[in-house]
Design a protein that fits this description.
184 residues, alpha/beta, Rossmann fold, eight-stranded mixed β-sheet, 28% strand
């Protein structure tokens, strides 16, 4: 697993040993960032269920202004902290350890241009996280919310007034792209 483009292009990232954390495959990450394109520049990123932090770190490498990462696993949080330090992004990122849904519920007056939600595949956390993002108004009006799930999972058509605009599958992974009506 590596940073694909930008300031830290080619840098290898550490990962948690075992199957508890499932890093986003490089080909999936490359496809997602192809869709995000220049939106990432100066964007505020929220990486929910961050795992290794590869999505937020890729965004920062490509010019994002700030990244907030949530991770419950202590082992994964240590790896994220190491990856942040190794990439030199301590100044424009923040890692919050603990339950991601609780961390979402605690955010106040925050807006993010890109939100990435990648819960453990065998969980019921995605609809709950989507609901909290919508209720808290965390997605900026021009923002993009991206979900990563197993291919066989049905994605909700909407979360509040945030609508599913596109689904794409890569192997066993399904990516969903959400935004407000009349946005792409």
């Amino acid at each position: 697993m590596r940073i694909i483009a930008g300031k830290c292009k080619g840098r290898r990232l550490s990962a948690v040993k075992g199957m508890e954390t499932r890093p986003t495959a490089d080909r999936v990450k490359e496809a997602v960032f192809s869709v995000i394109g220049s939106r990432v520049v100066e964007a505020r990123i929220l990486d929910v269920f961050a795992g290794t932090g590869s999505i937020a770190l890729e965004a920062l490498s490509r010019g994002a202004g700030y990244a907030l990462l949530f991770e419950k696993s202590g082992d994964a949080a240590k790896i994220i902290a190491k990856n942040i330090s190794d990439c030199g992004f301590e100044e424009n990122s923040k890692l919050l350890r603990g339950d991601s849904l609780k961390n979402l519920s605690l955010l106040k007056d925050e807006k993010f241009e890109i939100i990435y939600i990648d819960p453990p595949y065998q969980s019921d956390l995605l609809p709950k996280a989507l609901k909290l993002v919508a209720e808290k108004g965390l997605l900026a009006q021009e923002g993009l919310l991206i979900t990563e799930t197993q291919k066989n999972i049905s994605l909700p058509d909407k979360a509040g007034n945030i609508l599913l605009k596109r689904e794409t599958s890569y192997g066993d992974t399904k990516i969903g792209y959400y935004c407000y009506p009349n946005r792409e």
